[in-house]
Specification:
With about 250 residues, the protein is an alpha/beta fold. It has eleven helices and eight strands. It has a single domain, classed as TIM Barrel. It has an eight-stranded parallel beta barrel with strand order 1-2-3-4-5-6-7-8, surrounded by five helices. The longest helix is centred in the C-terminal third of the chain and has 19 residues. The structure holds 1,3-dihydroxyacetonephosphate.
Length: about 250
């Protein structure tokens, strides 16, 4: 097991609504979770952040709420965007940045992602910076190179990594039911950690949490999360049902 406290994060994407989101967070908050052993995070769409926090505030729990994305701009005429300041003011403590759906569908480039990371940190938000190769990259034996380049560019000029979590999500494993094998995932996580050690020093790399994402389920969670360099999971589909998500949160309990 790794020395770092695992973080199990649920990315709801553009799913759930006020009622179903409320039910899900209430189920999680009422469940028996040992927060000394695991951190738990949910990332609803921005409009559901406040209702989720409101429901959570009524029950004793330590669930963290995150946004799924922020603008790299401070404020102004950017129709449809949500600023880091707005997310922070809504009570969220984290934001995802650079999810592959943002990279692929909304052309979030590495440069833009780096600006978003800086903007989030300026507003005291912690960041889950997502990276991952496409199937094309993997088949071209360029997976490691691609992922390390995304890490390097995403973290460019970021002085401290204390508020940064990385999430390795191979694009071909997202929403496909195909997971990276625990061995392949571990190899990539190790490569990421070694790279961070090279650019930022071993002490920083040793503390950095690196999550795995891509078709994580209650069935495969334990083996993935038992790998030395895998410090948690970023879960999509299986985070939408409290029963499944709780099994992943409690992966260590069986
Ligand atoms: P799935 O767990 O549905 O594959 O989604 C993973 C993901 O994209 C989490 O950010």
């Amino acid at each position: 097991m790794s020395k770092r406290k695992p973080l199990i994060a649920g990315n709801w994407k553009m799913n759930l609504d006020k009622l179903t989101g409320k039910k899900l967070v209430e189920d999680l908050a009422n469940a028996n979770i040992d927060y000394k052993k695991v951190d738990v995070l949910v990332a609803p769409s921005s409009i559901l952040i406040q209702p989720a926090l409101c429901s959570l505030s009524k029950i004793k729990n330590s669930i963290i709420v995150a946004a799924q994305n922020i603008s790299h701009e401070e404020k102004g005429a950017f129709t449809g965007e949500t600023s880091a300041a707005m997310v922070a003011a809504s009570g969220a403590k984290y934001t995802l940045i650079g999810h592959s759906e943002r990279r692929q569908l909304y052309v979030d480039t590495d440069q833009l992602i780096n600006l978003k990371v800086k903007k989030a940190l300026e507003h005291n938000l912690s960041v889950i910076l997502c990276v991952g190769e496409t199937l094309w990259d993997r088949e071209a034996s360029a997976a490691v190179e691609t992922v390390l380049a995304q890490v390097g560019k995403g973290l460019k000029d970021i002085k401290s990594l204390t508020k940064i979590v990385l999430a390795y999500e191979p694009v071909w494993a997202i929403g496909t039911g195909v997971t990276a094998s625990p061995k392949d995932a571990q190899n990539m996580h190790k490569a990421i950690r070694e790279y961070v050690a090279k650019i930022r020093g071993k002490a920083v790399a040793d503390k950095l949490r690196i999550l795995y994402g891509g078709s994580v389920t209650p069935i495969n969670a334990k083996e993935l999360l038992s790998q030395k360099d895998i410090d948690g999971a970023l879960v999509g589909g299986a985070s939408l049902k409290s029963e499944d998500f709780l099994k992943i949160i409690n992966f260590d309990k069986k």
